[in-house]
Amino acid sequence: MIKIHNLKKSFGENEVLKDINLVINPQEVVVVIGPSGSGKSTLLRCINLLETITSGHILIEGKDITDKMNDINKMRAEVGMVFQQFNLFPHKTVIENIMLAPVKVRGIAEEPARRKGLELLRKVGLEEKALAYPDSLSGGQKQRVAIARALAMEPKIMLFDEPTSALDPEVVGEVLEVMKQLAREGMTMVVVTHEMGFAREVGDRVIFMDGGYIVEENEPKQLFENPHQERTQAFLSKVL
Amino acid sequence: MDFRFDIIAEYTPFLVKGTLLTIGLSIAGILIGTVLGLLIGLGKLVNNKLAAFPFNLYITFFRGTPLFVQILLVHFGVVPLFMGETNAIIAAIIALSLNAAAYIAEIFRAGIQSIDRGQMEAARSLGMNQRQAMRYVILPQAFKRMIPPLGNEFIVLIKESSLAAVITAPEIMYWGRAMAGQYYKVWEPYLTAALIYLILTISLSFLLNRLERRLNTG
């Protein structure tokens, strides 16, 4: 479970997150939507401490990740992250990409790590690409490998930062399909996306952000069909 | 003009010895300069400005002053200070290494910074600490990009080792100048020296090209 209290984040003078309070429950799929510059990606990056937090607290399973006494690396290993630009390691094969962190961070032996990696590749439908280099994959395949790589660390929660925004339209579906499967298996997920169809179908809760605030949150059906806030209505009228 | 091959033949044993010393100076300079350069380059990348300051100062000094001056300073100043008397070969190795380290530090820094920020973020998001991320993700990629500029630097180093002649380190140019002085000849000694340097630098760039090709296909 994640609890976010009074989270603020500024880049210099520019306050990007202004007092965010949010609870994410186990096995919940929370979809974050909003215009660009609303702070939704920054929120995700704060949960993984890829950004230093200006003030406030983030508790993951009761542990305050902003507390310097806690080992950031250990906490990060519990949180999987999938990036818009995939960020696969180009000098390593697909299976090496997946095995690297389990072997080097968790200290798992090569063979079990490889077996686990192949199993994850099968799950995302790319077992035959195990020995390929990322450069030879399509965008959709790269993102599925990136998901498998994050899952190899057996995270308690998965963060998706616009995972389909850099993809050609015809391969968006294959990535969303993998994410849907994860959601069905009960993975706790926070997804920043512009895919309103995915939000509606898979999200347990949708959060609308604008100007550094959470403007409105609700069940997808409620939020999409009956938004209470004017800004939510204005945004939805443009994207739906 | 009669070109005197006989004096080249007479000096051949010395030129061979000189060539071996030039190769020795260059290899020592490359090895020590690369190790020092990596440390200095990493030092410059430290986020703390105060901690990075000495590394910046080092790079500024060694890139901003002539190697000729550095060689004289090391030979007549630094080496006698530590060893009591000077030694041309040691002084040449030290000066070449310190000088190359400054340039190599910049090559390392640029190579590391050229790697997309997302690579570090992905590594860290998988739970790797800074050192693991550097070692397994950033440096292997950066190293590949560093090979062409490093190759240039190594070639420059071979050529600049000729300055060691002025502090009487008996490398190629030392014997070239000796030949010129003995026979009052210009073309024979200096063209011969030029030819030897050319063979050395062409051989090195050939090796580097092969290495680059192999890494690109691997």
Automatic annotation (TrEMBL), chain A:
<feature type="domain" description="ABC transporter">
    <location>
        <begin position="2"/>
        <end position="236"/>
    </location>
</feature>
<dbReference type="GO" id="GO:0005524">
    <property type="term" value="F:ATP binding"/>
</dbReference>
<comment type="similarity">
    <text>Belongs to the ABC transporter superfamily.</text>
</comment>
<dbReference type="Pfam" id="PF00005">
    <property type="entry name" value="ABC_tran"/>
</dbReference>
<protein>
    <submittedName>
        <fullName>Polar amino acid transport system ATP-binding protein</fullName>
    </submittedName>
</protein>
<dbReference type="InterPro" id="IPR003439">
    <property type="entry name" value="ABC_transporter-like_ATP-bd"/>
</dbReference>
<keyword id="KW-1003">Cell membrane</keyword>
<keyword id="KW-0472">Membrane</keyword>
<dbReference type="InterPro" id="IPR027417">
    <property type="entry name" value="P-loop_NTPase"/>
</dbReference>
<keyword id="KW-0813">Transport</keyword>
<dbReference type="GO" id="GO:0005886">
    <property type="term" value="C:plasma membrane"/>
</dbReference>
<dbReference type="InterPro" id="IPR017871">
    <property type="entry name" value="ABC_transporter-like_CS"/>
</dbReference>
<dbReference type="GO" id="GO:0015424">
    <property type="term" value="F:ABC-type amino acid transporter activity"/>
</dbReference>
<keyword id="KW-0029">Amino-acid transport</keyword>
<dbReference type="InterPro" id="IPR003593">
    <property type="entry name" value="AAA+_ATPase"/>
</dbReference>
<dbReference type="InterPro" id="IPR030679">
    <property type="entry name" value="ABC_ATPase_HisP-typ"/>
</dbReference>
<keyword id="KW-0547">Nucleotide-binding</keyword>
<dbReference type="InterPro" id="IPR050086">
    <property type="entry name" value="MetN_ABC_transporter-like"/>
</dbReference>
<keyword id="KW-0067">ATP-binding</keyword>
<dbReference type="GO" id="GO:0016887">
    <property type="term" value="F:ATP hydrolysis activity"/>
</dbReference>
TrEMBL record, chain B:
<keyword id="KW-0812">Transmembrane</keyword>
<protein>
    <submittedName>
        <fullName>Polar amino acid transport system permease protein</fullName>
    </submittedName>
</protein>
<keyword id="KW-0472">Membrane</keyword>
<dbReference type="GO" id="GO:0022857">
    <property type="term" value="F:transmembrane transporter activity"/>
</dbReference>
<dbReference type="GO" id="GO:0043190">
    <property type="term" value="C:ATP-binding cassette (ABC) transporter complex"/>
</dbReference>
<feature type="transmembrane region" description="Helical">
    <location>
        <begin position="154"/>
        <end position="175"/>
    </location>
</feature>
<dbReference type="InterPro" id="IPR035906">
    <property type="entry name" value="MetI-like_sf"/>
</dbReference>
<keyword id="KW-0813">Transport</keyword>
<feature type="transmembrane region" description="Helical">
    <location>
        <begin position="55"/>
        <end position="82"/>
    </location>
</feature>
<dbReference type="Pfam" id="PF00528">
    <property type="entry name" value="BPD_transp_1"/>
</dbReference>
<dbReference type="InterPro" id="IPR000515">
    <property type="entry name" value="MetI-like"/>
</dbReference>
<feature type="transmembrane region" description="Helical">
    <location>
        <begin position="20"/>
        <end position="43"/>
    </location>
</feature>
<feature type="transmembrane region" description="Helical">
    <location>
        <begin position="88"/>
        <end position="108"/>
    </location>
</feature>
<comment type="similarity">
    <text>Belongs to the binding-protein-dependent transport system permease family. HisMQ subfamily.</text>
</comment>
<dbReference type="InterPro" id="IPR043429">
    <property type="entry name" value="ArtM/GltK/GlnP/TcyL/YhdX-like"/>
</dbReference>
<dbReference type="InterPro" id="IPR010065">
    <property type="entry name" value="AA_ABC_transptr_permease_3TM"/>
</dbReference>
<keyword id="KW-1003">Cell membrane</keyword>
<feature type="transmembrane region" description="Helical">
    <location>
        <begin position="187"/>
        <end position="208"/>
    </location>
</feature>
<dbReference type="GO" id="GO:0006865">
    <property type="term" value="P:amino acid transport"/>
</dbReference>
<feature type="domain" description="ABC transmembrane type-1">
    <location>
        <begin position="19"/>
        <end position="208"/>
    </location>
</feature>
<keyword id="KW-1133">Transmembrane helix</keyword>
<keyword id="KW-0029">Amino-acid transport</keyword>
